[in-house]
Design goal:
The chain is an alpha/beta fold. It folds into three domains: about 45 residues, no CATH class; about 270 residues, no CATH class; about 100 residues, no CATH class. About 25% of the residues lie in helices and about 25% in strands. It has a 15-stranded mixed β-sheet with strand order 1-2-3-4-5-6-8-10-12-14-15-17-19-20-21. It has a four-stranded parallel β-sheet with strand order 7-9-11-13. It is elongated, with a radius of gyration of 29 Å. The protein starts with a helix and ends with a helix. This is F-box domain-containing protein. GO terms for molecular function: SCF ubiquitin ligase complex binding. It comes from Selaginella moellendorffii.
C-alpha cells in the first residue's frame, strides 16, 4: 500500500523533527543507549535523516561487533564476509565524523574487522574536545591510539581492554597535552604479548593523567611478575589489581592511598609512603617493601582463606578489618574459634587495632582450654572498633566483652555502619571482667 505522504508528494524528510526523535527512541527499544544499528539504519533513509542523526542530542554511541544476524552475510562491494571486511570500519568512522558531539563511545568487537586503531583521523578529531567517556574493547591499543586518546582533553573516564606491545613507543612529550579531567582509568595488559613493553607504555600514559583518582589494572595470563611504576606526581589515588592466581604484581607508587587486590598470588608494594588501606581477597600474600607507611589498615574480605596465609601479615600493618563474610570456610559451621584465629593473626607484630562487623562477631566462639595455652602478650590489642547497628548490640555483647577481657583491650569504639560515625566509646580505667563490660554494652543498647 502506498504511503499517504508519498501520494501527496512528500517524503520521509518532511516528517517533523519530534516524530523523527520518537522513531529513533523506539528503534532503541525505549532506551537511550545509542547502538550502531539505529544510527546506520536511520541515517540511510534520506539526506534529512542523515543530518538529524548528527544533532547534539545523539551524544552516546555504543558499538558492538558483530551485530546479530550479520555473521554469515557478505559485503556487496568486496564480496567478503562482513565479519572480516573493512567496510564496517569505514562506516563507523564516517558515522562518528558526522556527529556534532560525542560524549560517550563504547567500541567492542571480537573480530579484527573492527579495531580502534583503524578509526580515521577525522573521527578522532571530531571527538577530541567533546569525548567524556571512552571504552575500547576492540583490538589491542597501540601507541598510535594512545596518542589519539591523549588529544581528548575533556576525557573523564577511560577503559582499555588490552594494550599492544607497541604501546611502549607512545611519546606524550611530543604533544604537550595533559588529560587534567581524567579521574578513572581501567587498563588491561596481557603476559602473552611482551608485558615489559606494555607496562612501559602504561607508565608513559600515566604521566599525562595528574588528576587520576581510580586505576583499575587487569593482568591476563601467567607470568612471574608484572611491575607497575606510577609517577610520583600522581597522589592520593586508589589502585584495583586483578591478575592470574599464579602471578605476582609489584607496585611502585609513592602517592597511592588505597590498594585492592583480587585473584593473584602475591602483591608487593614498594615506596608507598602514603598508603593508608589495603583490601585483600582470599589467600593473597602482601609484602610491604622499603619506604612504605607503618600505619597501614588491612581489610580481609571473602570466604576461602587458608590459615597459613594469616601468618603472613607483614609488619607495618597497624589495623586489621574483618568483613562479614571473612573465614566462613574455616569450619563447616562457619564459626571462628577466637584464640586459634587471633594467636595466628597477631604473633606479636605491629597490629594494634582490630575492626569487626556484626557478621564476624556473631560467628566467634571461645575455647577456654585454648585460652590457657596462649600467652596473653601474643594477642594484646589496644583498640577495637565494633561496626555494629544499634539493633545488633545485644547479639554481640557477650562476644565483644570476652574479646576485651582476653586481649587486654584499652579502648573500644562503636561505629555506625550507616555513616561510619563513632557513636560510643569506652576507655579502660581498670581491669574489667567480661560480665561488667557486657553490662555496659547492654546498657548502651537499652539507652539507644
Amino acid at each position: 500500500m502506498e504511503s499517504p505522504c508519498v501520494r501527496r508528494g512528500n517524503g520521509w524528510s518532511d516528517l517533523p523533527l519530534d516524530i523523527f526523535y520518537k522513531i529513533f527512541e523506539l528503534s532503541c527499544n525505549g532506551s537511550f543507549k545509542r547502538s550502531l544499528v539505529p544510527f546506520l539504519a536511520l541515517s540511510g533513509v534520506c539526506k534529512s535523516w542523515r543530518s538529524n542523526t548528527s544533532r547534539r542530542c545523539f551524544q552516546r554511541l555504543n558499538i558492538f561487533w558483530p551485530l546479530p544476524g550479520l555473521e554469515a552475510k557478505l559485503c556487496s562491494k568486496h564480496k567478503r564476509e562482513l565479519l572480516h571486511c573493512d567496510c564496517i570500519q569505514a562506516s563507523i568512522s564516517a558515522l562518528i565524523s558526522r556527529l556534532q558531539e560525542v560524549h560517550t563511545l563504547k567500541l567492542h568487537s571480537v573480530h579484527k574487522a573492527l579495531q580502534a586503531s583503524k578509526l580515521t583521523d577525522s573521527a578522532w578529531i571530531n571527538m577530541a574536545s567533546s569525548l567524556r567517556e571512552l571504552d575500547i574493547g576492540a583490538g589491542p591499543v597501540n601507541f598510535q591510539v594512545l596518542e589519539r586518546i591523549s588529544s581528548c582533553i575533556n576525557l573523564e573516564s577511560l577503559k582499555i581492554r588490552c594494550l599492544a606491545p607497541e604501546s611502549d613507543e607512545f611519546t606524550s612529550e611530543a604533544r604537550g597535552v595533559v588529560l587534567s579531567k581524567l579521574h578513572t582509568l581501567a587498563m588491561g595488559v596481557s603476559y602473552t604479548a611482551a608485558p615489559r613493553m606494555q607496562h612501559k607504555g602504561l607508565e608513559k600514559f600515566l604521566e599525562l593523567c595528574p588528576k587520576l583518582e581510580i586505576i583499575k589494572l587487569v593482568v591476563e595470563g601467567r607470568h612471574s611478575a608484572f611491575i607497575l611504576e606510577v609517577p610520583a606526581s600522581l597522589r592520593n589515588f586508589v589502585l584495583h589489581v586483578r591478575a592470574d592466581l599464579t602471578s605476582k604484581v609489584v607496585v611502585v607508587a609513592p602517592g597511592i592511598a588505597k590498594l585492592e587486590a583480587m585473584d593473584t598470588r602475591k602483591v608487593v608494594v614498594d615506596s608507598a609512603a602514603c598508603l593508608k588501606r589495603v583490601v585483600l581477597w582470599p589467600n593473597i600474600m602482601l609484602q610491604l617493601g622499603n619506604n612504605c607507611s607503618t600505619q597501614v589498615e588491612l581489610a580481609l574480605r571473602g570466604l576461602h582463606w587458608e590459615w597459613y596465609r594469616l601468618r603472613e601479615i607483614p609488619s607495618g600493618v597497624k589495623r586489621i578489618c574483618l568483613g562479614d563474610d571473612f573465614g566462613q570456610t574455616f569450619s563447616k559451621s562457619g564459626k571462628l574459634e577466637f584464640y586459634s584465629l587471633f594467636s595466628t593473626m597477631f604473633p606479636g607484630g605491629s597490629v594494634e587495632e582490630l575492626e569487626l562487623t556484626t557478621g564476624v562477631l556473631s560467628r566467634v566462639w571461645y575455647d577456654e582450654e585454648r585460652r590457657l595455652s596462649v600467652q596473653p602478650s601474643t594477642w594484646t590489642i589496644k583498640h577495637v572498633f565494633l561496626v555494629v547497628a544499634e539493633d545488633d548490640i545485644k547479639a554481640i555483647a557477650k562476644t565483644a566483652s570476652n574479646l576485651v577481657y582476653s586481649c587486654g583491650v584499652q579502648c573500644v569504639s562503636m561505629i555506625s555502619p550507616r555513616d561510619n560515625r563513632e557513636v560510643w566509646r569506652w576507655q579502660r580505667t581498670n581491669v574489667p571482667d567480661p560480665t561488667s563490660f557486657e553490662s555496659l554494652l547492654l546498657g548502651e543498647s537499652t539507652r539507644s
